[in-house]
Write a structure and sequence with these properties.
mainly beta, seven-stranded antiparallel beta sheet, five-stranded antiparallel beta sheet, 3 helices
C-alpha cells in the first residue's frame, strides 16, 4: 500500500523535482497513530521518474519498460531511456533516420494509441518510426546510438504481395527481430528479420496446426533463446499460442488444451513473455488465469486464477490485464468484480498488492495505474499512474519507479528540464484506458473520478 510523505519530505522532493514515498514514512505514521506497523509486507515506495502530463490521454505516453537496469517509454514525439533516476530523451522527431536523408515525423501509433509495448533486449531498444515522407520502418538503438534498421519502408512482404505498410510490436533477440506486419488488402502476419532478410512465420493464408482453417489475426510475438518464435494467433476457433521453429509450426496452447486446475479447455490465450524454457500467457473467460507452458509443450501450469484472493480488496480475481514476468515472478494488473485495476506481484504462490487505486501519492489520490509487458526487474518495477488532486475534473500522469523492498533508491534531480517538457503539452484531454483484453469487456470502463483529495 502506498503512503503519503510528511511535509518536510514534500518540500525536499518538490525542490528536486521528485515525488517519493519514503520507506520509513509509513512506519513513522503508524507509530505516531499508536498502530503497530506491518513489518511482514513493507509498503512500496514510488519515485516519479518522468515529467508530469496534465490530463493526458493514455495514447500520448506509452507503457514503460524496465530491462537491463534501463527504463524506456515513448511519447508521440520522443523515445526516452536511461537509468531509472536519469531517464532522458534518446531519439526525437527531429532525429535523422539511419542511412536516409529524412528525419522521423513521429513514432508509430497503433490505431489511436502509441505502439505501447516498447521492448528492450540485448540489442537495446527496438521501435517503429515513421518518416516525414510517411515511410514506416523498424529500428533499434543502443546506448543512445541508432544501431540499425531491421525492416525498411517499401520492403516486400515475403510470400505476400506488395510492400509492408504498417508494423506492430517489434521484439529483438540476438541477431533477429520478430514483428507483426501489415500490407495491402488486409494482409497481416508474423515475420522474422535477420541480416539475410525477412521471412514469414505465419500469415492469414497459413493453416492453424492440426486444424482445417487459417489464421485470421496475430498479436504479440517473441524470440526464444533457442531461436524459435512464439506468437499469439487467432482463428475462428479462438486464440492460442503457437511456435515456429525450423520452418515448422506447432501448438503450445489453444482451445484443445486443458487448463490444469479447472480441467476445462482454455477459452483463449495471450502471450506475455518467455523465460527459462517457459512461455507465459494470460487467459480469459471460464479459464481466467495467468499460466505458463513449457516451450516444447510438454506441461502447463496455472499461477493466478479466478479463485486467487486479492488481499487489498478481500475479493477474488475478476479480471486480468497486462502481466510482466521476471525470475519466475509475475507483476500483473488485476481487478475484482466491480472494481478498477490495481497492481500486484505473484511470487512463489502468494499475491502481494503493490499499487492501489485510491492510495495517496504526490498530494493526491491514484485514480489509475497501468504496467506493460516488461515492467519488472530485480527489486524494482515501473508503472504509469494518474494522480487526482483537489479538482475532480483533472489529473496528472507520470511514470513511477517502485521498489519491492524499500531503501534501494537515491534521491537525485532526475526530472527533465522545463525546456524538454515544453513540447509535451500538445496533448488531448481525458483518460482512455488501454487493455490487453477484448475491447467489449465490461471491465473496460472509463476511469471514475474519486472526488477531491483530502488535505
Amino acid at each position: 500500500m502506498s503512503t503519503l510523505i510528511t511535509k518536510p519530505e514534500k518540500l525536499l522532493a518538490g525542490a528536486l523535482g521528485l515525488w517519493i514515498l519514503l520507506p520509513g514514512a509509513a512506519a513513522q505514521a503508524a507509530t505516531e497513530a499508536g498502530v503497530a506497523p506491518d513489518t511482514a509486507t513493507p509498503p512500496v515506495q514510488l519515485i516519479r521518474i518522468s515529467p508530469v502530463w496534465q490530463s493526458a490521454p493514455v495514447g500520448a505516453i506509452g507503457l514503460p519498460s524496465l530491462t537491463g537496469g534501463v527504463v524506456r517509454y515513448a511519447t508521440e514525439d520522443a523515445l526516452f531511456e536511461g537509468p531509472p533516476l536519469a531517464v532522458r530523451a534518446a531519439i526525437r522527431t527531429s532525429t535523422w533516420i539511419p542511412e536516409r536523408t529524412d528525419a522521423y515525423s513521429f513514432f508509430e501509433r497503433d490505431l489511436d494509441r502509441l505502439n505501447y509495448d516498447l521492448m528492450g533486449s540485448d540489442r537495446g531498444m527496438t521501435f517503429v518510426g515513421r518518416s516525414r515522407k510517411g515511410d514506416v520502418g523498424i529500428y533499434s538503438i543502443q546506448t543512445n546510438k541508432q544501431e540499425r534498421a531491421w525492416v525498411r519502408a517499401h520492403t516486400a512482404i515475403p510470400e505476400g504481395t506488395g510492400n509492408f505498410e504498417r508494423f506492430q510490436f517489434p521484439f529483438t533477440q540476438g541477431d533477429a527481430a520478430v514483428f507483426i506486419g501489415h500490407g495491402e488488402n488486409g494482409q497481416k502476419g508474423v515475420y522474422r528479420a535477420t541480416k539475410a532478410g525477412v521471412e514469414r512465420v505465419a500469415d492469414a493464408s497459413t493453416l492453424v496446426p492440426g486444424r482445417e482453417m487459417s489464421f485470421r489475426d496475430f498479436s504479440y510475438a517473441r524470440i526464444l533463446s533457442n531461436g524459435a518464435v512464439v506468437f499469439t494467433g487467432y482463428s475462428v476457433a479462438g486464440s492460442g499460442l503457437y511456435k515456429y521453429q525450423a520452418g515448422e509450426l506447432s501448438t503450445l496452447v489453444d482451445r484443445r488444451t486443458t487448463e490444469p486446475t479447472t480441467r476445462q479447455p482454455y477459452a483463449g490465450a495471450l502471450l506475455v513473455g518467455a523465460e527459462d524454457g517457459w512461455v507465459y500467457f494470460t487467459s480469459f473467460g471460464g479459464t481466467l488465469s495467468i499460466g505458463r507452458v513449457r516451450d516444447d509443450g510438454s506441461s502447463v501450469e496455472t499461477l493466478v486464477r479466478d479463485t486467487t484472493q486479492l488481499p487489498d480488496l478481500n475479493a477474488k480475481v475478476g479480471a486480468i490485464n497486462y502481466a510482466s514476468i521476471q525470475q519466475g515472478r509475475v507483476l500483473f494488473e488485476a481487478a475484482a468484480k466491480g472494481n478498477e485495476f490495481n497492481l500486484y506481484l505473484w511470487d512463489k504462490g502468494s499475491v502481494r498488492p503493490l499499487v492501489q487505486r485510491g492510495a495517496d501519492l504526490a498530494g493526491g489520490k491514484i485514480v489509475a495505474v497501468r504496467s506493460g509487458l516488461q515492467a519488472l526487474q530485480g527489486n524494482r518495477f515501473v508503472c504509469l499512474a494518474d494522480v487526482q488532486g483537489e479538482d475532480p475534473g483533472s489529473f496528472q500522469r507520470a511514470v513511477y519507479l517502485g521498489e519491492l523492498t524499500p531503501g534501494g533508491a537515491t534521491i537525485v534531480n532526475a526530472i527533465a528540464t522545463k525546456t524538454e517538457e515544453r513540447s509535451w503539452f500538445r496533448l488531448g484531454f481525458g483518460p482512455i484506458p488501454v487493455f490487453a483484453r477484448e475491447a467489449g469487456s465490461s471491465t473496460n470502463s472509463a476511469i471514475t473520478p474519486l472526488g477531491p483529495a483530502k488535505p
